[in-house]
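Support case: zinc ion complex. Customer-provided input:
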Amino acid sequence: MDSALANLVHMWLRELTPTLSRYMIFTFGVWLALWVVLKPVLAPRKVREATPPAHQLATEFLYSMRSMVIFATVGLLTVFIYRAGLYPLSHLADQWGPAWFALSLVAGIVGLDAWFYWTHRLMHDPRLFRRFHRRHHRSNNPSPFTAYSFDIPEALTLVGFVVVWPMVFPMPSYAMQWVMLYQIVTNTLLHGGYELMPARRDGRPMLDFIVTTTHHDLHHAQAGYNYAAWFTWWDRWMGTEHPDYHARYAQAAWRPAGQREVSVLPAE
Ligand SMILES: [Zn+2]
Ligand SMILES: [Zn+2]
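Agent response - structure generated as follows:
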């Protein structure tokens, strides 16, 4: 193999290894923790009665592998963009110290949330849905492996954030890795099938601005609502939050000690 190609393959593998490792650790970790080890303890927090069949999980895993290859390839592209000097804001931000680094993590997550909400809404347009987003919705009852079970255009759309954000925001070079780590942990939990967000006394989520597993589960059950993946504010501002969200959440919620039942949905 000629040395330029060998070097390119080496660089690509250097992107793929952490991407794949993160995926393996967190999806298998969440699956093992929630679906095996803590299953008896968490039984009252299960969002749905039914559990998806093993073949669904295996299919999702295979599609997720393809998404990881896409993420690593686009990751390598950003390395070249950075080296070409096309991320001048990142070069600047690299000198702004740890406080800016911390702030850029928060900004990155808020930015990613907006990117996800709007691109996700777009992908639900009937003209785009079949090509962009049908694979993800084949999992009506999600599992931790659903999180990256994407069509190719959807994987490219999500990772497009990694390319575009440092062009418009002074993001230090290594900050995006941490945003992606947060992204994978929370995204896997959103598809984890168990409601882990503690409830307040009134049955509402303790942190109501955070998207819960029930919130995203409703999107899989009934597309047309709950497009956000991290914060609830876009769905609320845009009027796309499922009207039964809080009632459904209360059914699955981590109830305060001593309180066994909270309000449930009226019979349909
Ligand atoms: Zn969707
Ligand atoms: Zn989903």
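The mean pLDDT is 92.

Case will auto-close in a few days if no follow-up is received.
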